[in-house]
Amino acid sequence: MGYRFPKTFLWGGAIAANQVEGSHLTDGKGLSTSDIQPFGAFGELVEREEGDFNIKDVAIDFYNRYPEDIALFAEMGFKCLRMSIAWSRVFPNGDDDEPNEAGLAYYERIFSELEKYNITPLVTLSHYEMPLNLAKKYQGWGSRDTIGFFEKYARVVFERFGSKVKYWLTFNEINATLHEPFTGSGLPRECDEKMLFQAIHHQLVASAKAVKLCHELVPDGKIGNMMLGAILYPRTCNPDDILQTFTQNREWLMFGDIQVRGYYPSYMKRKFEDMGISLDITKEDLEALKETIDFVSFSYYMSGCASADPEMQEQAGDANMLKMIANPYLKASEWGWQIDPKGLRYLLNFLYDRYQLPLFVVENGLGAVDTVDENGQIQDDYRIQYLNDHLFQVGEALKDGVDVIGYTSWGPIDLVSATTAQMSKRYGYIYVDRDNDGNGSLVRTPKKSFYWYQSVISSQGEVLKDHTDK
């Protein structure tokens, strides 16, 4: 028998509004930054014109089909669903005087549906989208004004949903702004380093203010941050590679350090000096940052390597918004993301040693092309192996003494990929009949992995197998 996870462990899956809901202008919703990214996070920004095609306009129609989808999640045994609220459903322009009641009512219905099945919602306030008006009028998080708009939005949702939602996250993969400024912060892509880090500062202050509001308005709730867990290994044991790796890992750990400790680490002060930039940081900002999070959450899809060798650096490839040097000991997915289950155990221990706060794995999964066989079934053994091997390592981290709250695998139902805006890059336990051109019936079909995950949850992880070195 395998390791039995704690009874309190939150098993589930994770989705994002802009990748599943569709109905992009229904019930008073405004355009979001995601709505002008029809080709994904790195693709061209396209102004909306009547009749143009954006696969996210319908996505998988979760906006209308959520009762069916939540029932399927419940059938698998989900204890938790990570989801996001579309900011532009609540404040269509971001700077509106009053919230959009129809948008609030929609999420109220979802939370009631989850409550019916005893599924705990974990809600992200901003998941790779913000009202497009804020990006156009204020340059997104480049403006200090956006802090106030976000604070107002957070207050509205905490007051409205605090009785139903006890787990919250502020921003999805907050460190992604370093790699894709528009997706992460609504910034112009040609922004300079000073504007980039000023926007990041505004976002961190806004996050801390939301944490304070949550503590005040949802006193029995918990609120965390969310980072893209991009752990890097040294390419060699050359001390130069060790230091290079140490420095590059700090680029994303900075976001956790500030949100856990409540102040800028000294290494960032040196970084700003070396870059020759001075940020607008007020005494009030520094005071606001002191309000710290209750737990640390992160996504984990892959690890990579770092090197101080310029020739080796030129070999770094794009993967999940990042530039990483390939690890010669690892295999990769169809999209070039290297598969490293042991890296998840390492990262869990690494973060717990650093922060001594509960951890939550809120994204992990395999994007792959699935084929429907002659019997109408999807035999996704490759996905089962990927998820088994990563969950086995979560169990190893728990045995190491790491406090892990839960695990919500990415895309429990097929959805539109954030980076490529494809339906063909599938993550789900549930197949959705829709292709990259928007064709298909949207019918839901459980895959083989659906029943596998059902057994994992019902056994509390005991059916997980150790494939180490096999």
Automatic annotation (TrEMBL):
Keywords: Glycosidase, Hydrolase. SUPFAM superfamilies: (Trans)glycosidases. This is Family 1 glycosylhydrolase. InterPro entries: GH, GH_1_N_CS, Glyco_hydro_1, Glyco_hydro_1_AS. The active site is at E363 (nucleophile). It comes from the Bacteria. Belongs to the glycosyl hydrolase 1 family.
